[in-house]
Design goal:
Layout lengths: L10 H12 L5 H14 L4 H8 L3 H14 L1 H5 L13 H10 L10 H8 L3 H11 L17 H13 L5 E17 L18 E14 L5 E6 L4 H14 L5 E6 L8 H8 L4 E5 L10 H13 L7 H17 L10 H23 L1
Parallel strand pairs: 1-4, 4-5
Antiparallel strand pairs: 1-2, 2-3
Length: 361
């Protein structure tokens, strides 16, 4: 009669097999294989192990033999099965997704690519997820062509990361055309099992312009609303900043290149108020102005889903939001170094240049 081969375990192998038996994440069959080997190492025969685990003697003998020949690694995975090899070419699916487009369309969907590759749409989805591919999304961008980009970048990032002493750094801008929108029908409130509802159509009741200055030191905001956003309204906002900031502080204002910020009358006023120093962001680089983050917050948290039956209602909502914000303001912390940003922009320009040359040829 054929006798079972003896199983001897090193201390490392035993620790590894016992960990497999205790695992809460391994498949049941992997745990059973570890149990077979441990019992075999304790001197039990195949019949005894089969009876103890409630499995077949042949199965016990197979995994005992496998361990003797290849150790723990040999019992962790199944041997490759015979039959037709899978047709899925993951590299080809990634190549098609990133380097081609379907006929008469701008991007692939799981179903269109599945038909092209001869696989299921769930297979395409798994490959996309594994490779971080999202063909249905597109991100917008704008690379600044300002010839003084590096100089302005270092100036503004320097104010964020190492602000001057005895001075305030204020990020200033206007959010124009804020609409007072009323819905044509009342929506339903949020309830268990159902999201809040809101009609897709609306009534316009006018607009306002929100002027805001974000204090980078503590996150507080100086703001006002005006009907228009000409240089005269900008001057009124500068006078408000003058009134609402400590008199002994120098003021460094970060602004974009909107024409009203550079109007002759604005320059004349600034010349008479030497504690104001204006720093302009590079063209097409409004993302350098931290007040844009505040504008995003007020839009998502108060304006986008708000219902306003007139402009005064809208202005009251804006003022209430800012009042609550200023009760416990939190500064936005800038962490990106100027050199890191500059290198990223340089790489983007190189890629865009290579793509342009490919298109020309």
């Amino acid at each position: 009669m054929k006798t079972a081969k003896p199983v001897e375990l090193s201390s490392e192998q035993r620790i590894r097999l016992e960990a497999m038996v205790r695992s809460q994440t391994l498949e049941v069959r992997a745990v059973r294989r570890a149990q077979i080997v441990l019992l075999a190492a304790d001197g039990m025969g195949n019949r005894e192990i089969a009876a103890a685990l409630g499995i077949g003697r042949v199965q016990v003998g197979r995994w005992r033999e496998r361990f003797v020949q290849g150790g723990v690694v040999a019992i962790e995975d199944d041997l490759p099965r015979s039959g037709r090899k899978p047709r899925i070419d993951r590299a080809e699916i990634v190549r098609l997704t990133t380097q081609s487009t379907p006929e008469a369309a701008t991007h692939w969907s799981t179903r269109t690519l599945a038909r092209k590759a001869g696989v299921s749409d769930t297979t395409v989805l798994r490959i996309w997820q594994a490779n971080g591919l999202k063909p249905h999304l597109v991100e917008s961008f704008k690379v600044s062509r300002d010839p003084k980009f590096a100089e302005k970048l270092e100036d503004i990032v320097g104010l964020y990361m190492s602000p001057p002493e005895h001075a305030l750094v204020l990020c200033c801008d206007e959010k124009s055309q804020v609409q007072a929108l009323d819905r044509t029908q009342p929506g339903l409130p949020l309830k268990r099992g159902r999201a809040a509802t809101q009609t897709h159509d609306y009534k316009r009741h006018g607009t306002t312009t929100l002027f805001a200055a974000l204090n980078t030191l503590d996150g507080s905001v100086i703001a006002r609303c005006d009907q228009r956003h000409r240089h005269s309204e900008w001057l009124a906002f500068l006078r408000q900043i003058e009134r609402e900031t400590p008199k002994g502080k120098e003021l460094h204002l970060i602004c974009d290149n909107y024409a009203t910020h550079k109007h002759p009358k604005v320059k004349e006023w600034l010349a008479k108020h030497p504690r104001f120093t204006v720093h302009f962001t590079p063209t097409s680089a409004s993302w350098l102005n931290m007040v844009e983050r505040f504008f995003r917050d007020i839009t998502t948290e108060r304006l986008r889903r708000g219902v306003f039956r007139c402009v005064p209602d809208l202005i009251v909502a804006i003022k209430d939001y800012i009042a609550v914000h200023n009760q416990d303001p939190k500064p936005f912390v800038w962490t990106a170094k100027a050199n890191d940003i500059l290198q990223k922009v340089i790489r983007a320009n190189r890629r865009l240049g290579s793509k342009k040359n490919e298109a020309l040829h």
